[in-house]
Amino acid sequence: MTKTSSTPSAQPAAKAQASPDQFFAVDIRVGRITAVETFPEARRPAWKLTVDFGDIGTLRTSAQVTNYSEEQLLGRLVVGAVNLGSKRVAGFKSEFLVLGAQDNDGTIHLLDPGTEVSPGDIVC
User: Fold this and answer.
1) Angle, vertex CA 124, rays to CA 70 and CA 53, nearest 5
2) What is the band of 107 on the pLDDT scale with cuts at 50, 70, 90?
């Protein structure tokens, strides 16, 4: 999603320190998007994504990455945090957090794990 402001917004301040145990408790995996659906019920424009995480299975999430078309997303490898629990978003059960970088204008750019990895591979 892109903000309409003509002036770039400043990046937020750094977050508080986290312990290595807190960081390593998050299970971050590579997945492949197998389905993309519109999500008209969402307050902000978003897609419903179904992602294959190999041995972990298939999980679904909502993602505000409408700067990507359905064709650009389908089959793409992504990075996701898969053990944060589920969350209800406009009646939809979001089961993981897809990871991306947010630029100064608010656009989300999905992290690209490269081509030499497979669904289910651990990000470390």
Assistant:
1) 40
2) very high
* Distance from C-alpha of 97 to C-alpha of 80, rounded to nearest angstrom: 5
Torsion sign over Cα 102, 105, 106, 111? negative
In this structure, the dihedral spanned by the alpha carbons of residues 32, 76, 112 and 97, taken in order and rounded to 10 degrees, is -50
Q: Are 119 and 30 in contact (CB under 8 A)?
A: yes
Please state, in angstroms and rounded to a whole number, the distance separating the CA atoms of residues 10 and 18. Answer: 23
Tokens linked to 20: 């290595």
* Backbone φ and ψ of 106, nearest 5°: 95, 0
* C-beta separation of 110 from 98 below 8 A: yes
* Enclosing H/E stretch for 24: helix 20-24
What is the length of the chain? Answer: 124
**Two tokens, residue 67:** 């700067």
Whole-structure pTM value: 0.87
The pLDDT of residue 9: 59
